[in-house]
Amino acid sequence: xxxxxxxxxxxxxxxxxxxxxxxxxxxxxxxxxxxxxxxxxxxxxxxxxxxxxxxxxxxxxxxxxxxxxxxxxxxxxxxxxxxxxxxxxxxxxxxxxxxxxxxxxxxxxxxxxxxxxxxxxxxxxxxxxxxxxxxxxxxxxxxxxxxxxxxxxxxxxxxxxxxxxxxxxxxxxxxxxxxxxxxxxxxxxxxxxxxxxxxxxxxxxxxxxxxxxxxxxxxxxxxxxxxxxxxxxxxxxxxxxxxxxxxxxxxxx
Length: 253
Hints:
This protein is α/β, with parallel strands linked by helices. The protein has one domain: Rossmann fold (3-Layer(aba) Sandwich). It is built from 8 helices and 7 strands; from the N terminus they run E-H-E-H-E-H-E-H-E-H-E-H-H-H-E. A 7-stranded parallel β-sheet has the order 3-2-1-4-5-6-7, sandwiched between helices. Helix 4 (106-133) links the parallel strand 4 and strand 5 (137-142). Helix 3 runs parallel beside helix 4 and helix 4 (106-133) packs parallel to helix 5.
């Protein structure tokens, strides 16, 4: 595999499973030093061991992305351990509240907003100065397909992800003159442990979700990781402020 990320330092949240882990493996294989943030220390340490065993460079920082001090500590770790920060993938997120809007209480609303939107704000707040100090770079936020279309029963999550797209575009304008690109990835359903636990626990459930995608299936984490790696790399040097889909046609309907 090539070395698009040789001498680059890439920060990833939600980095120990699914798309986050796939992106970490991909950019590490292409030369990046990776700084991994997630809640679970044991699985985070295993990810670091795996990447180092394959010849890569990695550190793990236990991180709750809903706590700004944790996000700041994660960003600082990149600079402390590797001397700089060149790219960041704000990937942590999940659906917390299910049901019609009149059935979701305030705690469910706040949980989805804090995990899926406020966490991205915290990331940008600390990543932009760090990237600027390194001479620029790229930030990618995971907005999911529900950042650009609606879906019932998950209104707080939809609201948060739409907010991620708006936040991405605003910060892209603010940071452009500092050499920083900011984009959002609009992904469809991905075959991850979280997906299987929440949306696809049965064959019928998986088939129903797959049918929402015109290509007739959900994606593999590695497919999404390939696209994310491109957007984080210098090959995407003229792309900023965009919400770009890798969703099997979900948002084309």
